[in-house]
Write a structure and sequence with these properties.
12 helices; alpha/beta; two-stranded antiparallel ribbon; 2 domains; 40% helix; Rossmann fold; Isopropylmalate Dehydrogenase; ten-stranded mixed β-sheet
Length: 351
């Protein structure tokens, strides 16, 4: 039976990098254990333009029935003042699919050390994962209000929501260096006080792992000063949004980092961490690595296609090691040229 993948190319550079990802998949499909079918659906600004909504019902229905979802990027100036923006469509999709755990691996390839804004001696060896709670907190809390002279939002968490994401982090840590850094602001916020006590309780179920606590401001500083000190970072929705974007600059480009969002039982969503980059859309210069590595996360985490995932990762690394770079890294390769270079590495290894 085919594994069904819903493809949400989205807006801006989304369709361009999605095309790269699907080309790379076609290059490795012969070594996959499953067969796969892909269904393209409008989403984000493309959903508004085609069907009048950022998350059309037909798109949501297809996602709910899928085995996994690939997302390119959404948003742009064209839709930012609409009543329902592309970003609201993404929040609605996360909520509808109960995508509670956002996983963002951050590593720095030796080939990219020169592009990091941080000194190579500091950033070399960075290999961490940020586990962000994605379905609650201040982004979804009620009540909220906005007037011309006053506004408020509610940062709300239930103990069960906190425990769920902490279990996810500890299970990931068990397969790594067994160290979990829980990030909060427990010296100020009530929600963080509950977060910290819950972290202590959950940690008792993982005696093989070490738990440490960091206030979010301290963690933000340490991510720049000593990123190799971290293994698995787990935190709430808002802090995770900020810290993962901060960590994304360590490799020198937003264009090289993937992410995954998981539910407890439904399909997972895989996407680059960057936005739609409307300023370079259509120019054929976008870096496709983040989309391609999101594909490898899907192959590994949803379908246990480890050989295929590793082949793609190794091929990306080999291309970078040869000094082949897209424009964001100071190179001259187009999106298609870079993608074809990866496919040549895959083909050379496979045949």
């Amino acid at each position: 039976m085919d594994k069904k993948i819903v493809v949400l190319s989205g807006d801006g550079i989304g369709p361009e990098i999605m095309d790269s990802g699907l080309k790379v998949f076609n290059a490795i499909k012969s070594i996959c254990h499953h067969s796969y079918s892909f269904e393209k659906k409008p989403f984000g600004g493309a959903g508004i333009d085609e069907l009048g909504a950022p998350l059309p019902q037909t798109t949501l229905t297809a996602c709910q029935a899928a085995d996994a979802i690939l997302l390119g990027a959404i948003g742009g100036p064209k839709w930012e003042k609409m009543a329902d923006t592309p970003e609201q469509g993404l929040l609605a999709l996360r909520k509808s699919l109960n995508l509670y755990a956002n996983i963002r691996p951050v590593s720095v390839s030796s080939a990219l050390l020169e592009f990091s804004p941080i000194k190579p001696a500091i950033v070399e060896g960075t290999n961490l994962i940020i586990v962000r709670e994605l379905s609650s907190g201040i982004y979804f809390g009620e009540p909220r209000e906005l007037t011309e002279t006053m506004a408020y939002d509610t940062a709300r968490y239930n103990k069960s929501e906190i425990a769920r994401i902490l279990h996810t982090a500890f299970k990931i840590a068990q397969g790594r260096s067994k160290k979990v850094t829980s990030v909060d602001k427990a010296n100020v916020l009530a929600s963080s006080k509950l977060w910290r006590t819950t972290a202590e309780e959950v940690a008792k179920e993982y005696p093989d792992c070490q738990l440490e606590h960091q206030y979010v401001d301290s963690a933000a500083m340490k991510l720049i000063q000593n990123p190799t000190a971290f293994d698995v970072i787990v935190t709430e929705n808002l802090f995770g949004d900020i810290l993962s974007d901060e960590a994304s600059v360590l490799p020198g480009s937003l264009g090289v980092l993937p992410s995954a969002s998981h539910s407890e039982s439904g399909p997972s969503l895989y996407e680059p961490i960057h936005g739609s980059a409307p300023d370079i859309a259509g120019k054929g210069i976008a870096n496709p690595i983040s989309m391609i590595l999101s594909l490898t996360m899907m192959l590994r985490q949803s379908f246990e296609e480890e050989p295929a995932a590793k082949l793609i990762e190794d091929s990306c690394e080999a291309v970078l090691a040869k000094g082949i770079f897209t424009h964001d890294l100071g190179g001259e390769s187009s999106t298609n040229e870079f993608t074809e270079a990866i496919i040549r590495e895959i083909t050379r290894t496979t045949y």
